[in-house]
Write a structure and sequence with these properties.
This protein is of the alpha/beta class. Among the domains are: 488-608 and 775-791, no CATH class; 627-697 and 707-759. Helix content is 42%, strand content 17%. The strands form five sheets. It has an eleven-stranded mixed beta sheet. Strands 16, 17, 18, 19, 20 and 24 form a six-stranded mixed beta sheet that branches. A three-stranded antiparallel beta sheet has the order 22-21-23, covered by helices on one side. Helix 6 (169-186) crosses helix 7 and helix 8 (218-226) packs antiparallel against helix 10. The protein is elongated and about 145 Å long.
Length: 798
């Protein structure tokens, strides 16, 4: 299979298209992935092929090892999971549209085999096959997330309104305002601006909770709306700003959301962590399709706005880079970034368009309604993919948007082109290129089945969850019996001897009914490696259960937890809970001194600092940086070095290419001049020969001197014509030689680029690890103490 398009950093989008002759050209259209850091907009009427182009871009990004977060309001993008390397009817059969088969008078199986043949032929036409589909599936993991539904992989959108990782006050304020607007949208409250009192109240509640390192949830928020922990907002007292009676109405709206039978679905599933959506725990890039087609408008707005805010926060935590780090794609964006209104989704989307470029995060938006877009915001988009547009209003809005980007467009020419484009043909206006390019999109590797419903997504995701969407599992009799028996086995709080301290672990979410005793240890471990110039300290916080055998405490089996001594609570967060029995050794003060020595010895013996390195890139991990995070950083570093090296290489070849092209140009001019002279000489000779023959045929009896002179001139003209023909041939040879030289230089450049792409392949960088043990005396134990944790105790008889 031809692999001219298989180049790292370049996306194979299709081939050039001549709109005037309606013919596809052989020239490949390869899009530089770096150009996506200046964002892209795809506009076209229904049937123009926007979904196919978007899937082409996402497939190419996945093959290049670039993660994608795709927001899907229609349900089309789940088609990315319909990839069948074998291209058989059996693969297609479960996914073909039965109604489409019936329309054609075919059985489902027959229609599936027809679709398989169509896809196989379509791929072959664009120099693709099942092997490339296999490569696509191996390059990234594809997952469909369905917030508010268990049909795909659920997202726990509302399980915890966690504080932002960024401590910047401006970022915290933006996040609080954005989350407040999103929640109000879910409750059916239309907050027109960030100054509306509903949004101001919620933003203040969230910001104050985050300042105290609290992760609020929706039930807590309802209570706070009724009785906030403050009595003033700005210079006004709370009652003047927002009276209690009216706050109660807002609380009732949110309570209605909580009381809905389907609300528990919003609390289950994977956390809405953008880093985890973009990468697997092993560091493999992921194409995460967040499908919201099943949601109503209010819930859809809430999910999209909260997701965009999370993307913005994640983006700001990344390091700067000129290369593409991740792609955020949103289909049918109309209504989420309107020209006049300010829905909760607009602010984070506009901020991403303005700021994400510096962090290597590209945003691509698609719509069929250009009049519904804020073109002032979209002036940050550097690439526009324009499909067919029919109405004068749509074309005018698109041309206005292009003029805001710049580039000296010809409105009249583009207006004419936009009306003549057939399906799957787009006009690409890229500010990084010299001018617009018309191209036909390549055949997608994914089977474009059309929108997938909940049952199909459930089947596609391999979900075996028997619980229907929104169904709550009731407390069974067995669960009630367990709870009752557990309460009988638990008792009152044990009385501790003097000198033994006790604390409580902070907990959130679902907790049990009984406090169980655990041993907590905290220490600072010093790691020193003179050769590597390393001297770092790491805090270790461990939690271990009390054993019942000869060894009461086994620190080697302890669990590492994130809670520092400062995070431990001095009093029980749930005073009414029961307490499990305390082992006898835990009631002896001297036991804690022994456990402290054991803790130090365990850390000295068993702990180590793992450092990761990529020798080819001369990169090393930072202390505390996980292998996954280091691999992601190395992949991005390899992309940056590859892009920089290729840019340097192109600059190095630029003068040679320019001279070669100039040589070709001069040779072509000389050849054209020689052809013109030869043509003139042929005409002149023909006239001379004709005049001589005509004179001879007029019947003169003797050849005059004039006739003889004409004949001699004609003979000379024939000789000159032959010479001119030789000059034309030599000029043509020089053109061929100059063109060959230019082609060899271009081929040499491409070979060097291919070698660089292979050498700096982000997914092939070798990562090594080194273990550094702490030296003797390098462990400083800060605290070993008794802690209590809420949990469901084991069922005990009696």
């Amino acid at each position: 299979m031809p692999t001219a398009y298989e180049k790292l950093g370049l996306f194979y989008l299709g081939r050039r298209y001549d709109v005037a002759t309606s013919t596809r050209q052989p020239d490949l259209v390869l899009y530089d992935s770096k150009d996506l850091t200046t964002h892209a907009v795809c506009v076209g009427m229904t049937g123009s092929g926007k979904t196919g182009l978007a899937i082409d871009v996402i497939e190419e990004a996945a093959i290049d090892g670039i993660p994608v977060l795709a927001i899907d309001p229609k349900g089309d993008l789940a088609n990315l999971l319909l990839t069948f390397p074998n291209l058989t009817g059996a693969d297609f059969s479960p996914w073909v549209d039965a109604s489409a088969a019936a329309t054609k008078g075919m059985t489902t199986d027959a229609f599936a085999w027809q679709q398989a043949a169509t896809w196989k032929a379509g791929l072959a036409e664009w120099d693709q096959d099942g092997d490339r589909i296999t490569r696509l599936r191996a390059a990234a993991e594809f997952t469909v997330y369905t917030p508010g539904s268990r049909s795909g992989t659920p997202l726990a959108i509302l399980k915890s309104l966690a504080p932002p990782a960024n401590d910047d006050p401006d970022a915290v304020g933006e996040r609080a305002s954005g989350v407040a607007a999103s929640l109000l949208a879910l409750a059916g409250v239309d907050a027109a601006s960030a100054h509306d009192r509903e949004q101001v109240l919620l933003a203040n509640i969230l910001a104050r909770a985050w300042a105290s390192d609290t992760s609020p949830d929706l039930p807590w928020l309802v209570q706070q709306i009724q009785l906030p922990g403050f009595d003033r907002i700005g210079v006004l007292d709370l009652e003047t700003f927002y009276p209690a009676r009216e706050r109660q109405e807002l609380a009732l709206r949110f309570n209605a959301v909580l009381a809905a039978p389907t609300f528990d679905v919003w609390l289950t599933g994977e956390p809405m962590d953008v880093g985890s959506l973009l990468y697997t725990p092993q560091g493999r890039p992921r194409v995460a399709v967040v499908s919201v087609a099943h949601l109503d408008d209010a819930a859809r707005m809430m999910v999209i706005s909260m997701l965009l805010n999370a993307v913005l926060e994640w983006t700001r935590r990344q390091s700067g880079t000129p290369s593409l780090r991740a792609l955020i794609y949103m289909d049918e964006v109309a209504g989420y970034i309107p020209p006049v209104a300010n829905p909760p989704s607009k602010a984070p989307l506009l901020t991403l368009l303005k700021q994400a470029r510096a962090f290597g995060v590209g945003v691509m938006l698609s719509t069929q309604n250009p009049v519904d877009l804020d073109y002032k915001g979209l002036s940050n988009a550097g690439t526009w993919f324009l499909g067919k547009l029919q109405t004068a209003r749509d074309k005018a809005r698109v041309l206005d948007g292009l003029e805001s980007v710049g580039g000296g467009i010809d409105r009249a020419e583009l207006d004419s082109l936009l009306s003549a484009l057939p399906a799957r043909v787009f006009l690409m206006h890229n500010v990084h290129e010299r001018g617009p390019v018309a191209f036909e999109t390549r055949w997608t590797m994914s089977y474009l089945r059309g929108p997938l419903g909940r049952d199909e997504i459930r089947r596609l995701s391999g979900s075996s969850n028997p619980v229907a969407d929104g169904a709550s599992q009731p407390n069974t009799a067995a669960a009630q019996t367990t709870r009752t028996s557990a309460s009988r086995s638990a008792g009152d709080k044990p009385v501790l001897p003097a000198g033994i301290k006790e604390f409580y672990l902070p907990q959130s979410g679902d907790v049990g009914t009984t406090y169980e005793p655990l041993l907590y240890g905290s220490a600072r471990v010093q790691y020193v490696d003179v050769k590597k110039g390393l001297d770092v300290a790491s805090d270790v916080c461990s939690l271990v259960s009390f054993g019942s055998g000869a060894v009461a405490i086994d620190w080697d089996g302890a669990t590492q937890i994130p809670h520092s001594p400062a995070a431990l609570l001095p009093s029980p967060p749930v005073p009414a809970a029961r307490y499990a029995p305390l082992p006898p050794d835990a009631l002896k003060a001297k036991s804690y001194a022994e456990w402290t020595r054991d803790f130090e010895r365990s850390l000295t013996r068993a702990t180590s600092l793992t450092l990761w390195s990529a020798p080819a890139l001369k990169a090393s991990s930072q202390p505390g940086e996980s292998e996954r995070d280091f691999r992601l950083r190395v992949q991005q570093l390899a992309r940056e070095q590859r892009d920089s090296a290729i840019a340097t290489l192109r600059a190095k070849y630029a003068s040679r290419i320019e001279k070669a092209q100039e040589k070709v140009h001069r040779a072509e001019e000389t050849a054209a001049r020689e052809r013109q002279q030869a043509s003139q000489q042929k005409l002149q000779t023909a006239v001379s020969v004709g005049a001589t023959l005509l004179g001879a045929l007029l019947g003169r009896r003797a050849i005059s001197a004039t006739t003889l002179g004409r004949a001699t001139t004609a003979v000379r003209g024939v000789g000159r014509s032959a010479k001119e023909a030789e000059d034309v041939a030599r000029a043509g040879t020089r053109v061929d030689e100059a063109s060959q030289d230019a082609s060899e230089i271009a081929a040499s450049l491409q070979r060097d680029i291919d070698a660089l792409s292979t050498e700096l392949d982000p997914m092939a960088v070798v990562v090594e690890n080194t273990q550094i043990k702490p030296k003797r005396g390098g462990v400083d134990v800060r605290l070993v103490t008794l802690v209590w944790r809420l949990s469901e105790p084991k069922n005990q008889p009696g």
